Amino acid sequence: MSKDDLRRWSYHAHGAHYREYAIGEMREHAQSWLDFDTVGSWYDWRMYRHLDPLLQSDRQACWLTVGDGRYGLDAHYIVKRGGKAVASDISGDLLEQGRQMGLITDYVAQNAEKMTFADDSFDYVFCKESYHHFPRPMLALYEMLRVARKAVVLIEPLDPVIPEPLLSSRRIDREDRRFPKLSARARRIQQQERSQRNSFETMGNYVYTLSAREIEKVAIGMGLPAVAIKPFHNCYLRGIEYEKKSRSSKLLRRLRGKNLLRNIISRFGLLPYPMASMILFKEAPRDETLRELREKGYQVTPMPESPLLGIVKALPRLQGKRVVIFGAGSFGQQMLGILKLFQVDAQAFIDNDPTKRGVTVMGIPIEEPASLGRGDYVFIASTWGEAIREQLTGLGFTEEDVTLCRLWD
Prior knowledge:
InterPro entries: Methyltransf_11, SAM-dependent_MTases_sf. This protein has helices at 3-23, 27-31, 39-48, 52-57, 73-80, 93-100, 137-147, 180-194, 212-221, 250-267, 287-295, 307-314, 330-341, 385-394, and strands spanning 62-66, 84-89, 107-109, 122-128, 148-157, 226-232, 275-281, 299-302, 322-326, 348-350, 360-361, 364-367, 376-380, 402-404.
């Protein structure tokens, strides 16, 4: 079987999988997903609640749910909390049943790796526990980022082999003899999870897992402004779909106890979290959104900006202006070459060093700051950038007249 055959088989198998739940032998089990007072429903709610900061701070947003083949229940959660949502999955069988039952109003059968939507079609895209099913999940992630306008939310397993220093309130050595029971329990759990590092599902697909660093690299590479991550434990036990959620539920008590113990161990830095909600922002989150996220335990990390981005943002402001580079050293000369790539001709270098004035470098003169006029646009290319920006402010320049360039690492 070729790689393309394996990929096509994966698509076929996942579609057939949900048809079994719709009309085949698994139909009875699928009905359990519709019972909202079970321990299984509580298990799902513990993941859905990680959407609440976005749902509360952006109530009129339009969402797309990806891999939402279980009757569109992901979209149903969003709609119940006042949002608008379109459910999608590679199979539309259970989605149509969900529409007929009134759980959702809109759905579409979509291959997540090749969506038919236009760019920026939705405010948010949400993918819960489906990314790891895709044969080429990174393609699906880039498609989600393409059709989302504000952010993409993933709730997925974390790679058990990659250590994640997330939300640990204190760090203790694994060999610390003051905590022998916690350390021993952490080792047993981690050995069990690492034994499943290369897992395959019954349909044959590899179970992909993510890491915080992997998501950060995607965001940095695409020039995204921020990433928010909240790791968590959400243990699963067989039979929770059929057990009613009540005080007498043994499965519920066991799950709560397992989650509590693992959270304590992870807080001490002894055990990596196995799951995370990860938000890749395409637009900088508003203050209200940031506040909601942090209150709910998210770590929000601004991403470093590409040095080119500041130049690209400045291009529309250069019309009719004399372009100069403040800084005639190696950084400034590098910037001159970069501006030429954008077909921008700088007319002069500006430098505070009086010994450089009157000299021509790379075909343009070095001038003193006093030569600057209100019709100039200044690219600051110096390790003294902040001080030069203050100097330009004193000369009457505004943020609209200046770009502070950053060094390439």
